[in-house]
């Protein structure tokens, strides 16, 4: 008996993340079209005939990683804006950058960020894109992610009208350009014009704290009408729920619950400063929460109540969160998931490597609404192959601990999305990586010069070319 498939990964250690969480030594994964056709010991799959066989000896074969919250355009500010807490960072650095970045510069930065993510084994990204967020740029960002071979969504960030909260907390009016009706009309235009199997578009009122409440209501209604999820930032800074309560008489989750806005299609970036009642609401409504530990550490925002939220029933993913995370490598971010919890709770068993791996794969896939995150028959073929033949992986007694604590996106040799190899041995397969790098470099230098942001150095091998 023989079966045929398109690509057969063989002789690797397969981390299935299936219902039994099996880890199979000397095992294989068969891919037919965009789905996984078989998983099992190499010997058992010996009868499979494949158009291409990839020998994975000395490698782990894992589900592609899911980035639940990013702002890829913020790659333009990589390394800048250091040493500020959230509101100051937004007011003095990121929002001025966002208000001035051109469409072409944003797309160039998005492509560079996506390239880094793919090279680190990320297969799905929810890219919360808010600058510029006109219809044409939103669709161009979605097209860029599609053309690079990624899966995910562009969550189109909307500022809407300039609220009292935004003004009172020092945010620049420059991004709050449209009233709610215009903002929602543009959002509808994006949703109506975009059709793609891998990349979706979601509405994203940018931040529950400083968005107009009506913009939030209408965004959620629009998401329901088009059958997509939605995303917003919520309670990232410690002061956020108090600011909100002062302005509107209720904490954010209490207000959203009262308005009937919460279900599994509601996804939140951060949600750090929730009280017990809000944790209960987020869990009962099965909300998705994108946890961004690297960003939370960088901006000194705080430690999310990871265990409480998961116990309550919320779905948690992990995210890089753009320039506040400073790195698209989810291996680094998985590690920080654990360290933040242990340090915040002074408890060495507050979180562990399996938790972090689960969030980056199965649970993140649930948050993103994609049928991936595990290597099991019938699932989408989103796969990463990771070298175990590196100095940091010797010895390997516990693979999940090694991957999470000692692994790095730089160890990824193959990234497959939707049954297609999109990154292999340091080269993107769908697009020209060198061109992406050069365009991003040129665009980012131009932007930072125009903004007159002081830079201490502008080195690197290509520095002399511009
Ligand atoms: Zn964010």
Description:
With 466 residues, the chain is α/β, with parallel strands linked by helices. The protein is 39% helix and 23% strand. The protein folds into two domains: 3-63 and 372-428, Urease, subunit C, domain 1; 65-368, Metal-dependent hydrolases (TIM Barrel, Alpha-Beta Barrel), CATH 3.20.20. A hairpin with a 2-residue loop joins strand 2 and strand 3. Helix 3 (135-148) runs parallel beside helix 5 and helix 5 runs parallel beside helix 6 (213-226). The chain is globular and about 65 Å long. It starts with a strand and ends in a 15-residue tail after the last helix. Zinc ion is lined by residues 69, 71, 128, 233, 269, 321. The site of zinc ion has 6 residues, from loops.
Q: Could you report the average pLDDT, rounded to the nearest whole number?
A: 95
How many structural domains? 2
Secondary structural class: alpha/beta
Which bin fits the share of residues in helices? 25-40%
- Report the count of strand segments: 17
DSSP strand content: 15-25%
Tally the helices. 16
The shape is globular
